[in-house]
Amino acid sequence: xxxxxxxxxxxxxxxxxxxxxxxxxxxxxxxxxxxxxxxxxxxxxxxxxxxxxxxxxxxxxxxxxxxxxxxxxxxxxxxxxxxxxxxxxxxxxxxxxxxxxxxxxxxxxxxxxxxxxxxxxxxxxxxxxxxxxxxxxxxxxxxxxxxxxxxxxxxxxxxxxxxxxxxxxxxxxxxxxxxxxxxxxxxxxxxxxxxxxxxxxxxxxxxxxxxxxxxxxxxxxxxxxxxxxxxxxxxxxxxxxxxxxxxxxxxxxxxxxxxxxxxxxxxxxxxxxxxxxxxxxxxxxxxxxxxxxxxxxxxxxxxxxxxxxxxxxxxxxxxxxxxxxxxxxxxxxxxxxxxxxxxxxxxxxxxxxxxxxxxxxxxxxxxxxxxxxxxxxx
Length: 378
What we know:
Blueprint: H1 2-27, E1 33-39, H2 44-59, H3 78-87, E2 93-102, H4 107-123, E3 129-133, H5 134-141, E4 150-153, H6 158-161, E5 175-177, H7 183-195, E6 199-204, H8 208-213, H9 216-226, E7 229-234, H10 241-258, E8 261-264, H11 275-285, E9 289-291, H12 295-300, E10 304-306, H13 312-326, E11 344-347, H14 348-353, H15 360-365, E12 368-370
Parallel strand pairs: 1-2, 1-3, 3-4, 4-5, 6-7, 6-8, 8-9, 11-12
Antiparallel strand pairs: 10-11
């Protein structure tokens, strides 16, 4: 009998201990992830995707407030990161106030930022995730020199850039990139279906990063399949804002004289607060234009683009990828491919200024129509 009572006491103790341990585990707070931001320099796309990602994180309940204000008079992301550090709230993600690293399109500062962040990870260990925006940041952070989860965003072609190994595999356990492999061939094919151009003007920086920034391999492949000639204007674009803008505008002026149509690529020279000035050579030459970046540039005056729900699809995808990693998945195991909604956006004011009257069948297929050419914030 005593043995039975002793056994019963032991069983009760074990059960009570297990229950207490389970209760303690349930009561333990979830890990709060400390985030930093890295970019090569200011760019309007980075602003839009950062804002969309914050909204996605808020919808998933990972932060409390995601409606971060976007500056209208500059392409600077610093005010946005500061706002997130102060106002995002929640118990799951902390945007570190001192975790903002921008090189300002300066190679020396780029190297210094990488060195400083790697030293911080090694010595302080206070970084749990890295948002790497653009090709420079993606290349610098997608490295085996650390093991902090990296989310490479706003890169035109992360595979061509060498940030990730392939569409299916990032190549490193702690690295994840956003990829939409078919987007740019789809854009050029749709543009060509409408205008049947023989010569397509393409501005880009002729460096490894510059070529990957615009997905040049996809552009060349599309041109070969369509039997069109690429008229190239190579210039320096990963530089300070004023110089980048001036270089791109000169390229557009040249291409407007030598091409049948212009594919305005994703680059730091496209500054939304100066769109009227940027597009003037295209208007004067009466040449159709297509935005590689998307609908936001068509709102401001570029003739057309593939319509997306702003940058919402990229932001949602990015936020969902972050959530999966926070739930325990390796970044490498999270799918990298997403697809934007298909559709066409047209700026009718630009159409009128270049003397193009869109056929009814084109207008019937358009998802978004804009009526003005303006600078951001007007």
